[in-house]
Amino acid sequence: MELDALAGALKLVGYGLAAIGPGIGIGIVAGSAIEAMARQPEAAGVARTTMFLGIAFTEALALIGFVLFFIA
Amino acid sequence: MELILAAAECDPSVDIICAPSNVNELFEFREAIWTIGGFPITRTVFLILAVAVIASALLFFGLRKKSVIPSKFQAMTESLVSYVRDDIAIDIIGPEGIKYVPWLLSVFLFVLIGNMYEVTPGVNFPVTSRMALPAMLAAITWTVFVIAGIKRQGFRYFTGIIWPTSVPVALRPLVGLIEFFSILVIRPLTLAVRLFANLVAGHLMLTLLLVSGWVFLSSIGDIGARAGIGLAWFIMGLGIFVFEIVVIMLQAYIFTLLSAVYVQSSLYPEH
């Protein structure tokens, strides 16, 4: 078995592991935002903007995993 | 078409994954079509210049007449501009966000039109899926928010990051180190990679599904009824096509929103 091919497969596994945490995090962020919008529909605009911000910051770890996929 | 044929060189009994021969292509510009005054014009560069022309033409023709009862085109352009001004710049940065509207609108239109190439028939190539472009946009954002911080707070902008006075003294070195990396390194990096990764993923999905659907369907004479699987892939590709239009607008919005948030956090560090 070629070592290079194994390293490539490990990179894929590494990216998959890096995506678990942000996946759960984005789920929590979006779920809470929906709850906030359902409770206070008049504040939906603020909740939506904050939700996108929360998602963007939570995504960071997955994106770092994506970068490591290329450079590792 | 070439993508599918290139993968045929890979022997599944030997290789674990059939990777494309060179992923570095995503980070490079291709060979030039023309050379104008020493500057090579590749297809990507041509499309980037076309973005500037399209964005300028949109704003020029959209806002040329300024009639009280706007035409449909004028109403669309005005709502685009007022969305960036009111809902992004003033909502996020505050009243002085009006100063940053020209930059934010340029970034928004550039990213939006650059992304729109992905679903434009005949082009089908988002210029933002070459790493050089999001990296450059993120570098501009980095420069803007660092300069905004220095103008507002002077040198205390950097000392405020490294030595945050709002946390207990014992934690300050640790929090300062984390803040330093997260603000000056991770922020521009994730800003660039988010745009790049989303567009590359969408482009690859569309290419793989639509091209393989087409390859299967067009080889119906050779493989008979099994070509029907191409129909399923083609339909799935068209579904992803609609989904990608949403992603395109969302990514342009998020890029602009985050740029505004970073400027805001430089201007008002206590928030």
Question: What does this entry look like structurally?
Answer:
The complex is a heterodimer of chains A (72) and B (271). In chain A, 89% of the residues lie in helices and 0% in strands. Chain A has 72 residues and is mostly helical. In chain A, helix 1 (3-39) runs antiparallel to helix 2 (44-58) and helix 1 (3-39) runs antiparallel to helix 3. The radius of gyration of chain A is 17 Å and the shape is rod-shaped. The model of chain A has no long low-confidence stretch (mean pLDDT 88). Chain B has 271 residues and is an all-alpha fold. Chain B has one domain (2-267). A two-stranded antiparallel sheet of chain B has the order 1-2. Chain B is globular. The N and C termini of chain B lie far apart (52 Å). Chain A binds chain B through residues 1-2, 5-6, 8-9, 12, 45, 49, 52-53, 56, 59-60, 63-64, 66-67, 70, and chain B through 14-17, 19, 23, 87, 91-92, 186, 189-190, 193-194, 197, 253-254, 257-258, 261.
Q: Care to give the gist of this entry?
A:
The complex is a heterodimer of chains A (72) and B (271). Chain A is mostly helical.
State the main characteristics.
heterodimer, A: 72 residues, mainly alpha, rod-shaped, B: 271 residues, two-stranded antiparallel sheet, globular
Radius of gyration of chain B: 23 Å
Mean pLDDT of chain B: 84
The share of residues in extended strands of chain A comes to under 5%
Mean pLDDT of chain A: 88
In total, how many beta strands of chain B?
2
SSE order of chain B, one letter for each helix or strand: HEEHHHHHHHH
Instruction: Please report the two chains with the greatest interface, counting residues with C-beta closer than 8 angstroms to the partner's C-beta.
Output: A-B, 19 and 20 residues
Structural class of chain A, please?
Answer: mainly alpha
The proportion of strand residues of chain B reads under 5%
Portion in helices of chain B: 55-70%
Widest β-sheet, arrangement of strands of chain B: 1-2
Q: How many helical elements of chain B?
A: 9
Radius of gyration of chain A: 17 Å
Low-confidence stretches of chain A: none
End-to-end separation of chain B in angstroms reads 52 Å
What is the count of distinct domains of chain B?
Answer: 1
The level of helicity of chain A is over 70%
* Sheet with the most strands, sense and barrel status of chain A: none
Q: Assembly type of the shown chains?
A: heterodimer
Q: Stretches of chain B where pLDDT falls below 50 for ≥5 residues? A: 1-8
Shape descriptor of chain A reads rod-shaped
